[in-house]
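I am sending you the entry underneath: sequence plus fold tokens. Let me know what the token row says about the fold:
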Amino acid sequence: MTAGPLAGIRILEAGHILAGPYASMLLSDLGAEVTKIEPPTGDMSRQVSDAYFASLNRGKRSVCLDLTTPAGQNGLHELVAGAHALIVNQKPSAIRKLGLTYEALRPHNEKIVCVAITGYGLHAGDDPAFDYVIQAATGVAAMTGEPDGPPTLPGYSAADNSAGLTAALGLLAQILSGRGGQIEVSLRDVMLSQLNYKASAYLNEGDPPVRHPYGAHAFYVPAQLFPTADGHLAMFLTHDRYWRTFVAETAIDPAEVAAFPTMADRAAHREEVVAVVTRALAADTARNWEARLRPLGLPVAAVRTLPEALADAPDAIIEAGGFRLIASPIRIAGHTPSYRPPPTLGQHTPT
């Protein structure tokens, strides 16, 4: 097995809770040496639970520095001199006050890449910007849920995780350029960018997003959750070939669907199509439908709980320091990540 593709890359992380730590953990899994700079009280996620902290900080080194003091700043500058990049997710005023910008660190390493993850931008003020707040502010919550129900938030931290992925991408791109510099990644911009086709439909055609029952897709029909004899089935039938295969397997009367043989026809007859599909799927359970339809090449899945999903994906679970965690989603031929334990607070602080 080869060393990770990022072997030899040294990254500093002055982050807390999720977005910054997730970004640097992904890079650590790829072979980078990540040093986590923690205040004397530690990353706030240490106060949540050991398992929470481990899920975002495995394989890192921990150096305890009080960046509000001259000694802490000296320690920071020594680390920066030998680093390729710094990731930070804190309030903009704190990032500047603690000297965690490229402008402040350039005298110590002209080629360092500084990535600032904030709510709205490094120069946009300190308005609180937690994940759920961003999902509300960017329209995600308003377009999620049943048509006659309240706005709904996803069951996990979509904005923080997406910002971490984006930050890691930006960091690597700038390192590859060979130039140092400041990179900004805001949770607001990340979530708006992920609304791509929905935003484009409104900006270019004046069509605001509309909620459909069971989370149905705006353009493709049938593409949503469906109730079955037991459980719910997610189905995403786009191609006409998918539709013909589904009709044949479920023994739907061809006369019932004669009016919508194409994708455009089905979109124009959404309610009729959904009614036909719902009746057909009531004849069996979600798990059985999955077992029947997947071998035919149809994109379907029974709705699983998290425990059920993990039981079905043992290859996605690894162990690091006694914690069972989710493996890196990036699989590289010839490289197996070294999943090491999360560090204790200040474990690698020079004595």
Remarks:
- The chain has 14 helices and eleven strands.
